[in-house]
Amino acid sequence: MKMKMMLIKLAFMMTAVSVTAATCSGDEPDEEDAGLTEFEKLYQDGCGPCGTIATGEQALALGPNNAEVHAMVAVNKFYAGKYQEAIELLKKAMRLHPHYPAWYPHYLGKAYTQTQQYDLALAAFSDVLARAPHQDWGHFGNAIVYVRLGRLEEARNHVENALALNPQMTLDTFAAGDGFYKDPKTLEGILDDLRQAGLK
CATH for 1-95? Predict the structure, then answer.
């Protein structure tokens, strides 16, 4: 899925820069670079999309002012079902990085959806669509929220818009790209929402 690949590329790009700079200079990495260097272990640990939560906490300690570290650890918290912690981390990441990428509010909207804060979820997904109008993420997020609000026509409109951008998307491909939930029932519920909204 495009979102998954973007996260992986972003993490490794940041890590490669910080590790190379520290190695070539022979200097100790500063606070921000240290967080990114430690953050590489999130992928090496192989637990979830961003490694283990314990390693993420270490990365936060090393890079407390790094927006990307906060956002990536929030993704792990989200898939572990720690939605409120994910929300707080993402909100801080967005404060630290005012020109944040679209995947920050995307996961914020997903976390708001799982905590039934639907107005906030819709606002977050609107932000996604404004920042990434050619991606399907915001439309699928909105569709899920509108199904849960009982507004099926609006949900179906968003799925149609998403499929216009990404005609290859199916329930199976969506599940393959978003299958990191600790509780498999969470993904089952999301897929059921999308099924009601017209995704096949």
Answer: 1.25.40
Cα gap 30→175, rounded to integer Å: 39
Residue 156 CA to its chain's centroid (Å) = 23
CA distances from 118 to 111, 113, 158 (A): 10, 6, 16
List C-alpha distances in Å: 80 to 122, 147, 148, 156, 180: 22, 23, 22, 29, 8
Burial label for 123, CB within 10 Å (0-12, 13-18, 19+), is middle
Give residue limits of the domains in the chain. 1-95, 101-200
Query: 101-200 adopts what CATH topology?
Result: 1.25.40
Q: Report the chain's mean pLDDT, rounded to a whole number.
A: 81
CB 142 within 8 A of CB 122: yes
Residues with Cβ within 8 Å of residue 27, at least 6 apart in sequence? none
0.85 exceeded by pTM: no
